[in-house]
Fold each of these.
Amino acid sequence: MAQIKNIGLFTSGGDAPGMNAAIRAVIRTALFHDVEVTGIRRGYEGMINGDFFPMGRRSVSNIMQRGGTILKTARSAQFRRPEGRQAAYEQIKKFNVDALIAIGGDGTFRGANAFNEEFGIPVIGLPGTIDNDLAGTDFTIGYDTAINTVINAVDKIRDTAESHDRLFIVEVMGRDSGMIAWRTGMATGAEGIIIPDANIGVDKLFDRLENGRKNKTSRIVIVAEGEGEESGAFEIGRQVKEKFPHLDTRVSILGHIQRGGSPTCMDRVLACRLGVAAVEALLEGYKGDMAGIINNQVVFTPFEQAIKHNSEINPNLLRIVEMLSL
Ligand code: F6P
């Protein structure tokens, strides 16, 4: 096994609260084991452009509580092409980096997997995304903060919905995952949730509005943003207004507010544990895996399995949402 002396560290894809706590954990653990860390700015874009710099213990002081990522992030189209990965590999060699830690989501790990296979550079991934859409971990770093941001926002929307006797369609993030939608739907007592990718469409909502309790004063429907034709809160709002013109309906898109803010205790602790695990895994010889936590135990899952998330939502959870909001 080649000895690892210098770990390259980067964040990539959408930022997530807790990424800074993970960066801090990686650096402090590496230094504890006498390994150097080279920061790479703006993910794979920075790798291709040679945006590398040495990181020391003090470079991560006072960042644990900050949202975003001090390493900055990007979605790199160049890295999806073999020439882009070749250019990145040349920079890795130039800066004497001999292993990588990638903090990001499924796109980041697809790139990491290709890079590891093509050039044999050991890479360990940390799940950093608000979407919670990776197999191999119960929670991703950033998800807990995002869902707490959502429930705070929806509680506020409920105040105005109740005052005006309105129906609010609230769109939450999760491009191809309903994980934010179902959990916040349950936690806010939403009257409906719509998750297009899991085939939970508008029909159920229509049925409820037609046959459900008529004297409800306010109604909240949480919609996962999705990508399909029927998806998107504005489109759903349009259909609801057409079919139920007597309801006073409004649409609210929560958007990027869900990605920012100070990480919750859960996200900080998750980031600390996984940051330590990632460095120690590299030193033990792991090379193409994501670190995650399942049933409170650190586990490693090969990248190709980690990116195959399952969008099916447990029907019992949906039953609970419906039953409790009657
Ligand atoms: O993957 C995280 C995420 O926030 C998704 O939930 C969302 O669909 C996407 O990123 C938005 O990306 P961008 O900020 O690039 O528009």
Amino acid sequence: MLNKRAGGSAGWRKSLWFLPVVLGVVPVTSMLHAADTNYDESAVVAYTLPDVLAGPDGRPAATPEDWKARCRPHQFALLENNVYGRRLPPATVMVVGELERADVTLAGGVQATRLQVRLRLGDGPQAPTVDLLVYLPKAPRPVPVFLYLNFKGNEAEHAAPAMLARGYCVATACYDDIFPDKPDGRAGSVLAALGRPVDGELAPDEPGAIAAWAWGLSRILDWLVRQPEIDATRVIVVGHSRNGKAALWAGACDERFAMVVSNESGCGGAALERRNYGETVADITKRFPHWFCPAFATYAGREVEMPTDQHVLLAMVAPRPLYVASAIDDRWADPRGEFLAAIAAEPAWKLFGVEGLGTAEWPPVDAPVGTGRIGYHVRSGGHDLLEYDWQRFADFADRNLPGVQPPDAGPAAGVFRPAQDMLPVPPPPGAIVLFGDGSTPPAFTAMNGGPIDWKVENGTLVVTTTKGHANHIVSKERFQDADIHAEFVVDPAAHGNSGLYLHGHYEMQIYDSFGVEPPTEQDEGALYRFGPPLVNAARRPGEWQVYDIRFIAPRRDSAGRITKAGSVTAWLNGKLVQDGLTFTEPRSPYTPYRHGVTDYLRGVEKELLSTGRGPLFLQDHGSPTRYRNVWVRPLAAE
Ligand code: GTR
């Protein structure tokens, strides 16, 4: 069981069945509001907000490109330097132990798959871990996700059946796993593990808890986007109160979040600092000195001198959809100040030619507004995250998220999402294993049809290299369209060059390409001579890597001429590297039918051209690449 906190999974399960369906969390705060807090709108000082579109020289962005290249980085740096601290670097995210998966029935009879997984953020056994709880709706295709941090631990979270019934996945982790929420929490936080200073005088732009929570959300996202059941293009980050501040900063730092939702995030979140209404910079930095970078506290009582304000934080989300939610009795969070920040952020959306809120009037309670890419409501009642709020977030997401897949989308549009998270991957039903773990002989022949001379060592099949680079091996299996899986380790010799020759005509590249930017048609993930990978997903030599390829073979007429292009969709190490790339005649002069060809292979190619069925080759290119778990799963012909 994966629960780190008291209560454990038994307690969690119980809560599923017996607790009322409340979609949210009650924060653990005792509101020690200052006696001199201003709640009088007429006593709010006049202020001028910094221009949200301004670049470093004050000149505002004129186009989306100008915003992205010149003005957004400038505005982002102002938030880093003055509020949250420097953005933290990425880290490797790996599963620790077993992923736990169970079918569960939630309140109202909603069927779901529950995943519980412990993620290690960073390298080495000492790296911090986060326990993630995920509820997946039963759906035939990848689903959008609401991701949020909770306050009390996953076992205290009440599942979100209503969201699941609307087709959304819900994923949550406890914020304390990332940064224990107390002034001296730094030493036990991910910041310490990232090598940031934990005591002594901190630099003015040293990140605090909010930066750490935002970073944790991005690391969870790293894992979520690798899951086949999840639509990586529609992960929504949500947060309530202090976690709402973190959600906004996460959305600013990481543009992979497709939509950002702030629920009553208030001071240091969605509310304008310049408005002296509710919580102030002095209040928040006194009680929560660990949340922000040290520079923020210096603006206590002089908010008007800040070179930024919270509308800038909201503008970082543009042109993605943003939802800001307030509650009318939550005056400490300054509901009107949250609305005004959303209005002041609008120019960033307008620059992209999209509508923001579509109104400048603060709406009545329980009457959501936002016909464009910004949504807003002020709910009746106090500081909380309630089902009402969740339902409005989902309404807004339904309207605004791009990339919604129509029910009849074909395989290349997203259904082919192989699990690559945990290696080795067991062969699925219907797979023809060409080489597994070495317990049965490799189902390959040499180029002349005879036995292969590649060695099986420690359960891996190792390329026997030759100077001529043509000691490839040929699968005994012949197939037309197929899903192809291979796990491999690259050796530094000869650039780690090897490859998967699909039908012997088209090569999915294997190469020592770690860190190469931008990757080219030579690099790992490329279909050699047809297209570079969409992203560089290559791992270092010595590490296990994994390819899953959906290969749709070209079709030929009886004279051998191509009548319909072929295509590949390929995943490499959890990333989509080819998305339906099409190809026709082979382009490489090095195919096994030309370079190092034998009589046997002439026969193989002839058969391929007449039947459309051919083998998979593993390539010798002078590097002792290791393979395991190589299989093909033939697809039904179109
Ligand atoms: C309060 C704090 C607010 C808000 C809230 C919460 O004490 O002053 O800014 O973050 O806590 O997170 O519940």
